[in-house]
Amino acid sequence: MKRFFYMAVLLMAALTFNSCGSDEPKEKTTATATYNMTFSQDLLDACNVFITYKAENGRNVMEAVTTPWWTKSVTSDKFPAEFGVMYKFSTKSDAELVKEKYDLEASIMFRIMTSKGASYSNTVTIIDSKGVAKDKVVSTLNKLSGKSTGYRVTINGDASPANNLDYD
Q1: Beta strands of 43-80 (E only): which ranges?
Q2: What are phi and psi of 143, to 5 degrees?
Q3: Along the 168 residues of the chain, how does pLDDT read in single tens digits?
């Protein structure tokens, strides 16, 4: 009888310590966005460019842009995940607008991928003003400053435009 009791205890112990697949931690779903922005040299010569972008888990980060190409990749595990950029243009106080015409151009390409394999991409033209007279550069830039482009992504990977994200 004791032998049966010890065998039963050993069997219970073996079953208790046996790993079960449902006990393993589930892989957390994430979404990663890559922002690729381009700016014309005329735009960068005429003004200061500041980007506030949605970083990891919706945190806002501001950066000055000084080169024609700006890129960032950020990841979020909060859903719906929010990805986006707000752009501000301010005329440089020391900028001498000496050319008669300026090509003010900027665009952004979003690429969003989830760890489940869903993906979304879109290119948005921020400004496409070619041949702007030097006396119209400031007013053209002021119309666009403070605008934003963004997306919300569900845990399933569905993306929808979200141009009302909070950048404060």
Answers
A1: 47-54, 60-65, 69-76
A2: -65, -25
A3: 556 545 554 445 554 555 555 566 678 999 999 999 999 999 999 999 999 999 998 999 999 999 999 999 999 999 999 999 999 998 887 778 889 999 999 999 999 999 999 999 999 999 999 999 999 999 999 998 999 999 999 999 999 999 889 998
> Taking the CA of residue 159 as centre, how many other CA atoms within 13 Å lie in the half-sphere pointing to its CB?
21
Give the contacts of 167 (CB within 8 A, at least 6 positions apart): 52, 60, 84, 86, 148
pTM of the model: 0.81
As a dihedral over the C-alpha atoms of residue 163, residue 34, residue 114, residue 23, rounded to 10 degrees, the angle is -110
Query: Omega before 80 cis (within 30°)?
Result: yes
Query: Which one-letter DSSP state was computed for residue 143?
Result: H
H/E segment holding residue 32: strand 31-39
